[in-house]
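To: structure subgroup
Subject: Chain for Friday's discussion

All,

I'm putting the inputs and outputs inline so they're searchable in the archive.
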Amino acid sequence: MTNAAEELLGAVSAIRRALRRYSGRPVELSSLTGAQLELVRLLRRRPGASIADAALELRVAPNTVSTLVGQLAEAGVVARAVDATDRRVARLTLTPAIARKVDAWRDRRFEALGGALADLTDDDRRRVADALPALARLAEALEVAGVIR
């Protein structure tokens, strides 16, 4: 199992490195930490999430998300709006300019990955597609465990 784990980590790392080199991070996001980028990616997928929603999905404490939101709001990356039905809740979105940059960044990564997948043989594309459910379960198992056992 150690060999499979090592090969999987190597492959995932190589894919991420290649996509980073191809797509480049927008200048406006270049100084963000990993945790801040995770929140930015989450808000791209789920605009209007609350701090509690984000904390649950990122599996961190709400005060951690609150701190990240404060930092990102100060940097002009995240906007807070009062929830229409519960004024105690802040709804979080990316600022419009940042949302456009993040969307373009994601699109470049998606395009690069799609192109690389298209270059694979039909058999290899099918194998990748067949592996996706197991990889999603593996990711969930790692999230639930919180640490590698």
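Points worth raising on Friday:
Residues 32-94 form a domain with the Arc Repressor Mutant, subunit A fold (CATH 1.10.10.10).
The chain has two domains: 1-28+96-149, 32-94.

D.
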